[in-house]
Amino acid sequence: MTQGRFVSFEGIEGCGKTTQIGLLSEYLKQRSIPHLITREPGGTAVGEGIRKILLHSETLHLTAASELLLFYASRSQNILEKIKPALERKEMVICDRFYHASMAYQGFGRGIPLDFIHKLTDLVCDGFRPEVTMLLDIDPEVGLARARARNHTRIEDEGRFEKENLEFYTRVREGYLELASQDERIQLIYADRPVEAVHQHILTLLGLL
Description:
This protein is α/β, with parallel strands linked by helices and about 210 residues long. It has one domain: P-loop containing nucleotide triphosphate hydrolases (Rossmann fold, 3-Layer(aba) Sandwich). The chain has helices spanning about 15-30, 45-55, 65-90, 100-110, 115-125, 140-150, 165-180, 195-205; strands at about 5-10, 35-40, 90-95, 130-135, 185-190. It has a 5-stranded parallel beta sheet, with helices on both faces. The longest helix is centred in the middle third of the chain and has 25 residues, at about 65-90. The two termini are about 25 Å apart.
């Protein structure tokens, strides 16, 4: 069966993923292109429960291993319940983070060996890999300031990762850039440009213009 397209968005906090996913979705709606938006952690009932644990600012003393495995538990459910069925319906799947996030955050950021994360990815994701990953790159200091300001206006408490220091986000960003240098499916996008310019770049990369 011919499947739909699978696109993921990656980047550190405050890079503009949510904004760009929203703009892409609106563009697709205007052209009656069927698509599904999902997120990690989250996307399913189980995933959203895991999201509350992982992102709540009062979740303390979570080990790096526990964090990694919770992300993959959410990912497993997301693939089964959301991603696979949508691709089989020949829809475009837009996922806010996928396995590259685990490599950047828990691998480069937390120090978990990448070879272990690769094995976990093979087990959980099986053959499901994004056709293309949009990596929105931004200076960690700028992104973190944006993210912390944004959290003051959120209804839900999702500020746990924003409590991390600048050194952590520098490692995560450098990890993302290293991954991009090794994987041609990862498209590096400079996210410090005007929002519309970034949007047009994404549409071009997806062949939608």
